[in-house]
Amino acid sequence: MKNSNRPIYLLLILIVIWLLVLSFRTPNNPNNENIQINEYNVSGFSTDFTRIVEDNSDGIVTVVSDTATASGFVYRQSEDTVYILSAYHCVEGAGHINVIFGSSYQCNAVLVGYDRYCDLALLAIKTPYEIKPLKLSDSTLLHAGEFVINIGTPLSQEYSGSVNMAMVALPLLSIENSITADNERENYYLDVIELSSNLVSGYSGSPVLNMNGEVCGMNTMALSEDISFALTTNEIRKVADLIISGNEYKRNMLGIKEVYVKDMENYEKSNLNLSIDNINGIYVQKVRDDSVAFSAGIRQGDIILNINGSDINSLNDYLDICYADAGSFVFTVLRNGETLILESQND
Fold first, then answer.
1. Nearest residue to 99 (alpha-carbon basis) of 116, 128, 74
2. Which domains does the chain have, with CATH numbers?
């Protein structure tokens, strides 16, 4: 019996073939004109990163002295006086200091004060213009893995305003540092932020900006091509305000390399026979044998709970003691479950 549906199948196949031919035909263009495809230019592309750079660039400067080229940023303005922060090692011994905004506006600067230990210099310029200071955050709120932005002047003035992206490697690290004064070398511990960043010469004094566009540190030194260190804004603010106030001060070098107990994991606390709920004090990783703490009897492994009547639970608490006007120090220490009271004179 023959298939009566064969003509229908053949017709359907022919229709499909014809539709395929039509879909690949070139449109009729009798004048042989070029077919124009509309092009769209994308402009004004913006991200959190570009916004941060745009919002803060006016307050970031180049610091040029007869000893080095560095970076800096506006900390405060009082009438026609603008205070600028930079790295002290870049202006130390300089006979002339110039501050440059952008690529052209220049002012002579005066070194108002400095702190050798944290490598901070406070400069002042006179200008009739209102310049918005950068906003400082709390460095203790940083987290490892957080992205940050450095804006400064690497190598020379022609690169002013260069942007460098980094990551917080460690939000708080106590490192051994040294200075040489009066031909004598002095070693001490300094609390810094460790950054995974490749910073070259000239970025010293540049601000480290978090993703809120706030200064969370100031670049001061590099350990290698991939590791650099920044001062905490907690110490920057304390030192700068002391200098601006005109009060004499000195940094009490306690000589402790510390870790805050509240930042420890529970297994670390347990290993030190601490209560898991204990969030007080600082654990002494190392103590210099020429320090105030060592002369008081503090040793590696001690937990310092209190200094001069003040509980030490955070970096701010510790800095308050470091910059206090104190002639002696009384430490409340936890050692092997026993509470000790230790005292030392601050020479």
1. 74
2. 48-126 (2.40.10.10), 139-245 (2.40.10.10), 256-345 (2.30.42.10)
